[in-house]
Each structure stands twice: as structure tokens, then as C-alpha cells.
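Hey, quick one: can you model this chain's 3D structure?
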Amino acid sequence: MSNSVTNFEMSSVLPGKKPCQGKNNESQVVQTTPIKKHSVTFKNQSSLGVIDHYARLTNKSHSSVIAEVVDLAIPILEKCNRHNWSINEIKNDLLKFSIKESINRSRGKTEVTLEEYCSLIWKTNIMSPLKIPIADYFQLNANDEFMGKDEKTVIRERLSSLRENYDMEKAIYIYNQRHFDVKHQSVSGYSNIILIHRTTFEGYYFDAGQALLLSTSQLIIFGINEVLRRKGIVMPYPVVCWIDIYHVNEMVVMLPVLRKTDVSNRVNVPDDIIINPYSQESRT
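Sure thing. Here's the predicted structure for all 284 residues.
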């Protein structure tokens, strides 16, 4: 099988109108068929050979043969579209079963805590498997304690571009290291970007916009609810559970999970989230 690539252009007919002159030089409007071209790429040389052979037998152009093949395939594609919802539902059911079985095998028990369940959902169905480490250098309006406006702008522009390119809902930028150079008034550091391709699954909403950076030792000693009470943090909706999604600088990024029915109560935040464990502002 050859790996060569061949390109063809196809034309599709679209309805339209244009003015023309009638027999008595009167202006008339007639129906026209504007042409819309599409480029087709063949990576499989054997497929191109079959099309070429069929074109010679039927005395047709390559584009006509390809158009004929596409027309034959349209009913199949329409049927796929109609059943696409059912296919997604089956995939979700299989994923739910896989998640529960994975937890049961790892624990050797049938009981599964909600935190375990949601944590595995996060890893398998919410967070993108793409890992994007970043080395940054900013010679901008920034300082050691607070991130500068220009620094935030550059990061958010990068996150927005990544979300668009990879078709993601949200993106989280987390500094692993951040150093401020007083002499050069610059910031350098290393970070990771977490991409989120969906925020809901099986009736649960994973609210990345309300993720909190909390002390690991305090969480171990007091637990999440007491830590929130001591910090005076009140969530705008009932949280069914919290899951840890990242560990850095002796701190943990904790993400709240709520029921999809309570999503209307959440606070709207930008889709691009920055978490900086090395300044007085933990997130922006």
C-alpha cells in the first residue's frame, strides 16, 4: 500500500439567482447554480487506482466518479447522524461500567465512595490526556507578590488559543515554579496546563472555575469542610464532593463537584483559569 497523497477538487452545486437579458433586451432574473469547490485528498493509492479504472470504464471524469461515490454514501451518513445520539449513550454507559469496574478491581470491594468515582471520571472523561509543560519568561509589568496585568494577558491569550485549537471547554494554567528577578524586573518559571474537554458527566458538573488552592497539611489535619470554614469560604451551591486534581508547593488544587441540576447557581468565571501558588493571590 502506497503512502503517496493525491489531491482532487470537486464541485458542488448551490442554488442562486443572477440577472440576465431577455429576448427584448429586458432585464430578467434566472435561477443559476453557483459552484462550490471542495478539495479531496487520497492517502491510499489503491483507492485512487479503483476510481481511475472506473472513470475510464464509464468515460467519466475523476470528480464525477467521486461525486457519485459520495452520493451513494450519503444515506449511510444520514443514518449514522440519526443514530449518533444512541451511539454516544452506549459509549457513556460503557465508560460508566469501566469506571466502576476499575475502582472495584483496585479496592477489591463493591463499595465505591463518591470521591473515588468522581476522581476517576475526572481522569478518564473530563480532563484531556494532553500534557502541556511550559517554560515561561516575562519581562513585563509584574512583581514577586502579584502577577502583572501583562503577564496575565499573555497567559490567557495562550490558553484561549489552546482551547480553540484543541476544541476544549476550559483550560487551567498552574505555576510549578515562579521566580522574580528584581534587577531585570522579569518573571520566569515552569508551569503545566490542564485542558478540560467537557465539564459534565452522568449528572455531575466539574466546576473548574471554583477550584481552590489549599494547604496539603491542613487538609490532612482538618479535612476539606473545616478548612473551608476556617477560611470563611462559602460555596454558592451544594457541593456533593471535592476531588484533588493537582499537587504543587505543598498545596493541593481542590475541585468541587456538584449536581448538574445545581449548575444555574454557580458563579460565572472565565474559561481560562490561572493558579499561582507563589504569590499572595493564589488564582486569577
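One thing worth noting: The CA atoms of residues 167 and 278 lie 30 Å apart.
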